[in-house]
Amino acid sequence: MNTASVAAFEGQIGQVAYSASKSGVAGMTLPIARELARLGIRVMTIAPGIFMTPMMEAVKEDFRAALAASVPFPSRLGRPEEFASLVAYIYGNAMLNGETIRLDGAIRMAPR
After folding, report:
1. What is the pLDDT of residue 92?
2. Which of 38, 72, 98, 104 could form a disulfide with 30 if both were Cys (CB 3.0 to 4.6 A apart)?
3. Does the pLDDT value for residue 6 go beyond 90?
4. How does DSSP assign 17-83, residue by residue?
5. How many Å apart are CA 44 and CA 112, to the nearest integer?
6. From the candidates 9, 10, 15, 18, which is the catalytic residue?
7. Which residues fall within 8 angstroms of residue 4, CB to CB, at 6 or more apart?
């Protein structure tokens, strides 16, 4: 199980290195899954949007609220248990392999 970011698909100005590294994670998912298939190993990636993390807890509440408002639905930050729930689902569904799943409430990042 790998973790990328929605920045892999729409990186913002000033995020070139971050976006490129997350794109690399997403881009390696299918080739590695194909390579490891003969060993019965699946490879999946989750690309989360904006989640409540310890780093985000340190951000001012008004800024967090503005970020949450940018998420179409549900209009809030993601919760760690939602990420964990997707991980559990992926592990439980043997047909999922070689894919990157966005977990982002349909957010699409603006250039800035």
Report:
1. 98
2. 98
3. yes
4. HHHHHHHHHHHHHHHHHHHHGGGT---EEEEE-SB--HHHHTS-HHHHHHHHHTSSSS-S-B-HHHH
5. 29
6. 18
7. 22, 23, 25, 26, 45, 46, 47, 100
- Over residues 66-110, the pLDDT tens digits come to 999 999 999 999 999 999 999 999 999 999 999 999 999 999 988
User: CB of 33 within 8 A of CB of 98?
Assistant: yes
Q: How far are the Cα atoms of 2, 5, 31, 40, 64 from residue 50, in angstroms, in the given order?
A: 17, 9, 27, 32, 9
Q: Of 18, 37, 32, give the one whose Cα is nearest residue 94.
A: 37
Question: In what order do the strands lie in the sheet containing 44-48?
Answer: 2-3, 44-48, 99-103
Active site residue 89: no
Residue 43 structure tokens:
């490879």
Confidence bin at 112 (pLDDT 50/70/90):
confident
